[in-house]
Amino acid sequence: MKTALVTGASSGIGKAIGQALLLEGMTVIGLCRSVEELPEGIAPLPCDLRETEQIKAAFSTLDHLDILVNSAGLAYLSRLSDGDPEQWEEMWRVNVHALGLCSQLALSLFPDAGGHILNLSSMSGHRVPPTGGFYASTKFAVRAISEALRSELKSSGNKTRVSCLSPGFVDTPLLDKYFAGREEKLAETRASIDLLTPEAIAASAVHILTAPEGVEVHDLMIKSADQAM
Q1: Number of Cβ within a 10 Å radius of residue 193
Q2: CA-to-CA distance for 133 and 79, rounded, in angstroms?
Q3: Is residue 228 in a domain?
């Protein structure tokens, strides 16, 4: 039985992925702040991903992993020209720094045959939308980290696979935070686009994580058929 750790497993995409991996017969650990919100069957591992020492302490309690899903993320509408630098810092720490650190710490817990790291990126990591410029920069960084780690592992003979999953608009609490102050725009978006569901993203995550040995999905981009860009 494989053991998977999912960050941000208490809500949204992370929650759906954790539940999907349980159905695949895996042992699932949920690393998050709101452990009381974890679905039944997921083992809680409390941690604030904004705090480096908490991340290190959480991983120090583990003795084995097969899969790491870096699903936790923050999205604020915070422009480069006039955005709040404190929001930039929070997004960078969770979306980029914590993702990199969790990946590094997981490597020492993977079996000799290698594990699998799945990073949740975004379509905003492939093109910069008119709003949310700093958020997009964090998701471009996720792709860069994933490609850099994949290259480093291959050069050292490590068989760990590194994958990205890049969704468009998904109907999650993160979307509400991203559109805070623009609720009319969010209502318009929901009315005009059949938004992706967390369960749809979880199905794609399972597809990536259960790919046959020797198959490494680099980046899977998914959008609603209604989403133009």
Answers
A1: 17
A2: 5
A3: no
Residue 35 is given by DSSP the state: G
What's the confidence (pLDDT) of residue 227?
75
| Rounded distance between C-alpha atoms, residue 120 and residue 165, angstroms | 5
Integer distance in angstroms from the first to the last C-alpha of the chain?
39
Domain count, the chain: 1
Query: What confidence tens digit (pLDDT) does each residue in 61-83 have?
Result: 999 999 999 999 998 888 888 88
Does 106 map to a domain? yes
Catalytic machinery residues: 135
Question: Domain holding 25: CATH number?
Answer: 3.40.50.720
Q: Please give the residue range of the domain that contains residue 89.
A: 3-221
Q: Which of 109, 201, 112 is nearest to 164 (CA)?
A: 201
Integer Cα distance of 179 and 177 in angstroms? 5
Residue 170 is given by DSSP the state B
Residue 52: Cβ within 10 Å count = 13
pLDDT in tens, 131-154: 778 999 999 999 999 999 999 999
- Whether residue 186 is contained in a domain is answered as yes
At residue 106's C-alpha, the angle toward residues 36 and 5, to 5°, is 30
Distance, in Å, from the CA atom of 17 to the CA atom of 39, rounded to the nearest integer, reads 11
Nearest alpha carbon to residue 10 among 219, 143, 189, 173: 173
